[in-house]
Amino acid sequence: MTFSNINPASYLFFFLKRESDRFFTSMAIRGFGFGMITIFVPIYIYQYFNSLPLTFLFFAGIYGLQGALVPFGGQIMMKIGLKKAMLVSLPFFWGFYICLLYFDISQLFIFLSIILYVLGMIFFWPAYHTNFARVSERKKLGKEVGKLNFVVALPGILAPAIGGTIIFLFGYPALFVAVLCVLLASAIPLFLSKDIHQIYTDSYLGAYQRIFKKENRYHNLAFAIFGIEATINNCIWPIFLAILAIGYITIGSVTTVALMVSLFFTLYMGRITDRLNKTKLLTIGSALTSGAWLGKFFVFSPISAFLAQGFYKFARTSAGIPFQTILYQKAEGKGAEIDEFIIYRGMAIAFPRCAFLIVLAGIFFVIPHISINFAFILAAVFSLGFIFMGKIPELKSWFKINNFDL
Question: Can you give the pTM of this predicted structure?
C-alpha cells in the first residue's frame, strides 16, 4: 500500500464509526477549546467594566435572554436536526469572542455579544442534552455520564493553563483566535454523524407553563439551585481570583490542577452511580460541595486556591454525576417529550441565574465595599439543595408533618 492510497477521511470515519464516539469526540475537542477561555471571560468583562454590579448585570442579561429564547431553540432544533443545531451554534460563539475585542470601539458590541452568545447557547445546549440522552446506554446511564464528563475533561486538563499562558504572552486576541480554531475542529466529527430530527410540540406558552406545573416544583428548585451554584463558580470565583491579584498563568494552573484531581474520580463516580442509590450519593455529594464552598471562603493565596478548588472539583463531581444521571433518567422517562423536558430545564435554570445576578448587582451597588467572597457562603447553602433532584422522601414527610404544602 502506498501513502497515496490512504484516505484520511476513511480512517477518521473508522475510528468514529459509532454515533456516540463521534458525539464524545466532538465534545472533547469543544471542551478543550472552551477550557482555554471559560474561566478568563468573566475576568475580561470585569476588567472592562471595572465594576462588579455592571459585570453581574452583563451576565444577568445573557441568562435572562437565554431563558426567554430557549423555546425558540427547541423550534429550530426540530426543523434542522440535532447535529445541525450544534453546528449552527459555532458561528454565534465565534461572533461573541470577536465582539469582546471591540468593546472599546463601541458599546453596541456589548449588546451584540450578549445576543450572539445567547443564540449560540439556545442552539447548542438543547441539542446537546437531547443527543446525549439519545446515544447513551439506558442501563449504564451513570457510566455514560461519567464517560462524557471524562472525555470532555481529559483533553481540557491543560487547557486553562495554556489559555492563561497565551494571555500572559500574547494577550486576549491571540487566545480568542486559538479558541476559534479549536471550535472549528470540533465540528468535524459532527459532520460524520447522521442527523436526527426530534419532534418538539410545545408552543411558547406551553413551554412557560411547564415551569408552573405542580409536578415540576422540585425540579424547579433543583434546576434553579444547580444554575445559581454554577454561576457562582463560573463567574464569581474567577473574578475573586483576579481581585486577589493572582496572575493569569496561576489562575489557569489552579483550574488545571483541580481538573486533574477530579478527572479519574469522574469515571469512578459514573460506575458506582449505576450500582448504588443515586439519591443517597447526591445527598453526600451535596454536603461535600457545601463544605468545599466554605473552604473557598477562606482562600487568600495561590496555594490556598489550589487546595480549595481541588477539593471543590472532587466534591462537585461527587454531586454532579448522580445529579446528571437522575436528570437524564427523568428526561428519558418522558419518552416522546424528552426535548420538551430539556427545553423546560433550560428555562428553569436560566431565569433564576438572571434573578440571582440582578439581586447580587443590587447588593454590591448599595454596599460597594462588601467582600465578593460572601457569595461563597450563599453557594454553600445552595449546594445543599441539589437533593431536590432526587426523591427526597424525608423532606416531603417533614413538610407534611409540619402542615406545609409545597
Answer: 0.84
What confidence tens digit (pLDDT) does each residue in 215-264 have?
Answer: 888 889 999 999 999 999 999 999 998 888 777 788 878 777 777 777 76
- In this prediction, residue 226 carries a pLDDT of 92
335: left (phi over 0), alpha (psi -120 to 50) or beta: left
pLDDT at 154: 74
Q: Which domains does the chain have, with CATH numbers?
A: 8-195+202-401 (1.20.1250.20)
pLDDT in tens, 160-181: 888 889 998 998 889 988 998 8
What's the distance, CA 295 to chain centroid?
A: 22
Give pLDDT, residue 48.
94
